[in-house]
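Form 7-S
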Amino acid sequence: MTTFPIEKISYDMYVPDIIEAYVNAGAIDKATELTKNLSSYYFEKLDYYLKQKPDIIASAGYEVQSAIQFTSQAADACKAGGKTEICG
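Output:
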């Protein structure tokens, strides 16, 4: 994360794996922070897409599904680390 900070590379499909690695390494605070930030990022995207007209939502299907999948993976990693309060 030092070499490729989120501010430079953004959230992608690998961030949930990084969260899981933090959990496995015992860095629960880092996993928790990254999960909260990832969730906020994707929830904002979902909020935007889901407020659009149905045809726009349909064309953004991949983005919507990806956002749901990535936040779910991050939540599962945090649950595994015992941080169920952020997993909702």
